[in-house]
Amino acid sequence: MGAWGSGIFQNDDASDWAAEFDEADPSERADLVTEALDTAVEDAAEGELDADVAGQALAAAALVARLSPGGGAVDLEGGPSATDVPGLEVDDTVRATAAKAARAAIDESSEWHELWSEAGSLDEAMSPVTEILRVLEPMS
Pfam families, from UniProt (predicted)? Predict the structure, then answer.
């Protein structure tokens, strides 16, 4: 994972996902979000969540959080400039999937966690994820 900071979109994987999201036809954006989230959840269940999948899932989860009630403060700097996602109803189910994907991405068994730990920057990298989870899991 090439990273230049600890923000959600300050790495190649999330930045590339955001660029793909922006370039996609608006009618395809909901699929990009759900695919990123579902892939992370599925890969984590199989015990193989790679950093690139985790980075994309965190990017999608950040967007879902931003579109959620109380999500206006979620930082999308460096992320998608478009936030219109026709066909994506940001309901409890989508928020729960986004939270599950984000939790999988930061789990100790994920490559994302391993790389940030090895870099000595795990706490810094966790800060924006904590904000995302605060929005996605307001009752937790």
Answer: DUF4259
